[in-house]
From TrEMBL, chains A, B, C:
Top-level taxon: Bacteria
InterPro entries: CdAMP_rec, N-reg_PII-like_a/b, N-reg_PII/ATP_PRibTrfase_C
Pfam family, one: CdAMP_rec
Gene3D superfamilies from the UniProt entry: 3.30.70.120
Name assigned to this protein: Transcriptional regulator
């Protein structure tokens, strides 16, 4: 068994959670903030058999990879024409920080 | 020293917390959700000497074991007589997921 | 890589957080309660290269050490003159509990 601790940006945490359920992998979720990732994120604790760690990592990569996204600037109603950016801008979204920890004992009571 | 991470269903977490205090075992609590356990649960971080890990596991078993409980169905006021279940039903309550992790260093500042 | 789990009393957590940012060390924060430390505290997860663990411990010691502080008692308006303590009292503030955990794998996606 390993304990996978995955810190997932809020934007991806619901999708990641759904993917775990589809694969019948149990996780415990804790609300967290900060770190590499922009403000809101969720910390997942996942106890998993050694031979399935790779599966968990694949699910994270498929659902939570950091990527750029085009965001349309909010239209500057009544704003200064000089400061108005008329084209969409790229922002970084998603991303995950993952620790795989050794476990000495694991119990389900 | 070990780090015991115990995920305890909300129904049992206060009782477990009290038991730890009686045994003079310190724990840090984090609000968590999901996993094996039904919705609300609490994640306890317990730093403990190797020779007391067994004590902590016993306290968890005594206070947080998954068990069945009879629940009386809510009376179906004005409901369809055909769909009314007139006898109590068994539901699973309690339960704990426990990880015992090795520690390389432990400090109290 | 190591995973440093630091449980920091609320009184010191903002200062600690700022110190980590100054040193360019990323941390994830989780709200927590109880333990050694008085009521509110914050649990920091810090993934860090082996050779910088000592730096993190130094930052914790410098910002979060348990110490005594003089606190003026709240004036007992209309209270019993016999029970009024007319001098400041020393209370314990700050403090940190720190676990350094081994990591088998670390990823940033
Ligand atoms: Ni294993
Ligand atoms: Ni030990
Ligand atoms: Ni290492």
């Amino acid at each position: 068994m390993k304990l996978v601790i995955a810190i997932i940006q809020d934007k991806d945490s619901q999708r990641f959670s759904n993917a775990l359920i589809r694969e019948n992998i149990r996780a415990t979720k804790l609300a967290s903030t900060g770190g590499f990732l922009r403000s809101g994120n969720t910390t997942f604790f996942i106890g998993i058999e050694d031979e399935r760690v790779e599966d968990v990592l694949t699910i994270i990569k498929e659902n939570c990879k950091s990527r750029e996204q085009l965001v349309s600037p909010i239209s500057s109603l009544g704003g200064n024409a000089d400061s108005y950016i008329p084209y969409p801008v790229e922002v970084q979204v998603g991303g995950a920080t993952v620790f795989v920890l050794p476990i000495e004992q694991y119990f389900q009571f």
